[in-house]
Design brief:
This protein is an alpha/beta fold. The chain has a single domain, classed as Rossmann fold (3-Layer(aba) Sandwich). It is built from four helices and seven strands; from the N terminus they run βαβαβαβββαβ. The longest helix has 24 residues.
């Protein structure tokens, strides 16, 4: 039987760390493969790329977040495959998830409440809109655990 492949998107926010715990728990229970992606957003576009020092700072931040999630996974005996991506976040996520052949994409909900309505973060909305894979959006209601 082939192992399920869980694709986790993190950005260092509280919501993404809550989603990381959920994804790691799923992988532990299902004995699944876990890929953890952090996207360095393309700023300035093709014509005006980000200065290399700023871009390297963003990559370093991403590596630190991935290291934290990797440690969380290791505590649960889950082997995480970290990846720093670059580009437009939702496009990079969808492309990498497709190439990695993810069975499930997991993301945190960075939304707000108001008038009873929950808003997703714009990247989560775009992933939901354009993906051909199941997506699990994890609410970040637990403020004390992380």
């Amino acid at each position: 039987m082939e192992t399920a492949r869980v694709y986790l998107c993190v950005d260092g926010s509280h919501a993404s760390l809550v989603a990381a715990h959920a994804a790691i728990d799923l992988c532990r229970r299902w004995h699944s493969a876990l890929r953890v992606a952090y996207v360095v957003e393309a700023i300035g576009g093709v014509d005006r790329p980000v200065a290399s020092a700023q871009s390297e700072d963003m990559r370093a931040s991403g590596r630190a977040i991935l290291k934290r999630v990797d440690a969380m996974a290791a505590e649960q005996d889950v082997n995480a495959e970290p990846e720093v991506l670059e580009g437009v976040p939702f496009e990079a996520i969808l492309s990498d998830a497709r190439q990695w052949n993810a069975d499930l994409i997991v993301m945190g909900r960075t939304g707000r409440t108001g008038a009873g309505r929950i808003l997703l973060g714009s990247e989560a909305e775009r992933v939901l809109e354009f993906t051909d894979r199941p997506v699990l959006i994890v609410p970040s209601t637990d403020t004390e655990r992380y």
